[in-house]
Amino acid sequence: MKKTKKDILSIYDLSSAEIWKIIQSAISLKKEKKSKFRLKGKSIGLIFEKPSTRTMVSFSAAMAQEDGTPLNLDVKKLQTTRGESVYDTAKVLSRYLDAVVIRCFKHSYIEEFAKYSSVPVVNALTDKEHPLQILADLMTIIEKYKIKNLKDLRKLKISFVGDANNVANSWLAVAAVLGLDFLLLGPKNYGPKKELLNEALKVAKTTKANIKISSDIEDIKGSDVIYTDVWISMGEEKESVQRHKAFSKYQVNKTLLSKANKNCIVLHCLPAVRGEEISADVMAEQEVNIFEQAENRLHIHKSAMIYLIK
Ligand code: CP
Ligand code: NVA
Q: Is 251 designated active site?
């Protein structure tokens, strides 16, 4: 019997056990000397409406290393540009491919696509979430702090500094699902949307996650991980002036870092704008962690694809 397909559109599509499993398998895959070609004969489609370096390339490399085929479906060349419906596109691509990975502006687009697709659909970033990014981030934290179990991961204070964007939303969700100690620090007017915060707080009640939203920089104290992302996400370029003004106090720099725990690590999903959300000196000091985090995207994508389509 054909197994029912599983999508990853949001962190909430994964249980805490599934998150742990995908990360642990990625850690094992990273240690493998030789590929076992687990995705031989499998093809995935990559539909990217926005630019991408890490996600696009690491998904493609992950498939190639497992002997599968990544197909970069240039959106400009698909019939969708001439008005073909999402319904027809999803139905037809499901007949050719084993999974579809989508980066798009509107989260509702990927939801609609997944509704009609009979193969797994994976969110490679929307205006709402960036779920696989967060799995690679967690993997990096687990490696850096030599975490053996969820109980120990829950002891770390993880602080996201900046804009409550797609990346922060996925962090909020993962903190809730895994029961983490999580601070979202940034200017008041750029906090999480009420419905997303309420959803996270509801889940947090069942997992005993400690989620705090704050605009007080002093709350950074006790942090073991400081995470940041750009102040202006793709598609928000018109808001540049007001965003620079609102976020200037929230740069991840030496002063902010001095308030955190002594061995606090800094992570950034990249691309970074040095001198804005992160100072150049902190970026230089922490690049050993940040580039490891970028590498982990490859292992997580491999692990997730094996989990979804093998
Ligand atoms: N972090 C991330 O998703 O990077 P890209 O936009 O380069 O894929
Ligand atoms: N928040 C950023 C993340 C880039 C990977 C954006 O959406 O542009």
A: no
Residue 3 has what pLDDT?
65
Range of the domain at 230: 132-295
Specify the CATH number for the domain of residue 52: 3.40.50.1370
Q: Is 264 a catalytic residue?
A: no
The per-residue pLDDT for range 110-123, each reduced to its tens digit, is 999 999 999 999 99
Same domain? 103 vs 250:
no
How many angstroms separate the alpha carbon of residue 3 from the centre of ligand 1?
A: 31
Determine the residue type at 142. Answer: I
For 156-187, the pLDDT digits (tens) are 999 999 999 999 999 999 999 999 999 999 99
**Are 120 and 197 in a shared domain?**
no
Query: One of 7, 127, 181, 229 is an active-site residue; which one?
Result: 229
Residue in 54, 65, 133, 251 annotated catalytic: 133
Between the CA of 167 and the centroid of ligand 2 the distance, in Å, is 7
Asked about 274 being catalytic, the answer comes back as: no
Residue 232 CB–ligand 2 contact under 6 Å: no
Beta strands in the chain (DSSP E): 43-48, 69-72, 99-103, 121-123, 157-161, 181-185, 210-214, 225-228, 265-268
Kindly state whether residue 204 falls inside one of the protein's structural domains: yes
Within a domain: residue 79?
yes
Both 254 and 113 in one domain: the answer is: no
Number of H helices, E strands in the chain: 11, 9
Residue 275 lies in a domain: yes
Atom of ligand 1 nearest to the CA of 124: 3
